[in-house]
Design the sequence.
């Protein structure tokens, strides 16, 4: 039987702390990179998404 009072050993707690810190760092770096980079609009650029309005359609237009 174990003699420690906790469920996890000190080494397991240290490993879990490092894992949480690294996951937080990866998430923070992803948010920073997302803020610095422009969204991809494909090879045609934004012009590829602009189309002529369909005749008679008033409520389903893209915001331009």
Sequence:
């Amino acid at each position: 039987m174990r003699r420690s009072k906790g469920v996890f050993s000190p080494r397991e707690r240290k490993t879990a702390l490092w894992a949480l810190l690294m996951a937080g760092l990866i998430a923070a770096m992803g948010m920073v990179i997302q803020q610095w980079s422009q969204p991809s609009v494909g090879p045609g650029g934004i012009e590829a998404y602009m189309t002529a309005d369909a005749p008679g359609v008033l409520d389903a237009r893209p915001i331009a």
